[in-house]
């Protein structure tokens, strides 16, 4: 028991040290950026302090009663988060369902493999004009872009995960005549969940990129619209504030998903430790 406690303490100390080191490197990079932008005095590359001040002016200034009513948060941040969340959720659910079905039915995989490979190879950005014609400028067009471009990682990983079910578990389920629903929930999904979560993290990054791309060309609000509008009006501080905010949003969402993954797959990590 004492040895286990000491081991856990050492692991926690190691994680804390790694955490400090990562943020120290980040702080050094910001300081170098601040120094370089100050020395060059290039309007296209403002200093981080100037970007932070501009972000505060855009999204945090004003009385509390106006913070979420008519402010930049309401016109820039919330629409983008809504489109990102909606597109990612639709792509994730559809990808998991379709992927599990294809993975469990080998004949279906044979018939759909070439079609999926062809569709996956089409760059989503090239279909933006098509979606513009079909859905016009607005949220449906942006959701279509996000869903089409971000569904593939989770779909393909779900196919691989469904095929990775332990044959012994499959034979045991047949021997005990476990129903299809129970078999799916208690055997297939747990076996596929590590692959599914890996796909979810990848398609979250794709969804964030495509959210910005769709707003660059087919929106009247959102962070992508704000960034391209600032670029066209040579307002580089606003442009960089939008870029930094998108990066922060991606980092926070990824960390949240990693936390959920660690909690949901705690049993998987424990099994790997025992096997090691």
SSE pattern, N- to C-terminal? HHHHHHHHHHH
By secondary-structure content and strand pairing, the structural class works out as mainly alpha
Report the helical percentage. Answer: over 70%
What is the CATH topology of the largest domain? Answer: MetI-like fold
The second-level CATH architecture of the largest domain is: Orthogonal Bundle
What is the CATH domain class of the largest domain? Mainly Alpha
- Shape by Cα distribution: globular
Overall pLDDT:
83
**Count of discrete domains:** 2
* Low-pLDDT segments, ≥5 res: 64-70, 272-276
Distance between the termini: 20 Å
Oligomer: single chain
CATH superfamily of the largest domain: MetI-like
Gist?
The protein has 276 residues and is mainly α. It has helices spanning 2-40, 48-59, 72-104, 106-121, 128-135, 139-163, 167-175, 180-217, 223-232, 236-264, 266-275.
Structural key phrases:
single chain; MetI-like fold; 2 domains; 83% helix; mainly alpha; 276 residues
What does this structure look like?
- The protein has 276 residues and is mainly alpha-helical.
- It has two domains: 1-41; 47-275, MetI-like fold, CATH 1.10.3720.
- Helix content is 83%, strand content 0%.
- It has helices at 2-40, 48-59, 72-104, 106-121, 128-135, 139-163, 167-175, 180-217, 223-232, 236-264, 266-275.
- Helix 3 packs antiparallel against helix 8, helix 5 packs across helix 6 (139-163) and helix 8 runs antiparallel to helix 10.
- The chain is globular, with a radius of gyration of 23 Å.
- It starts with a helix and ends with a helix.
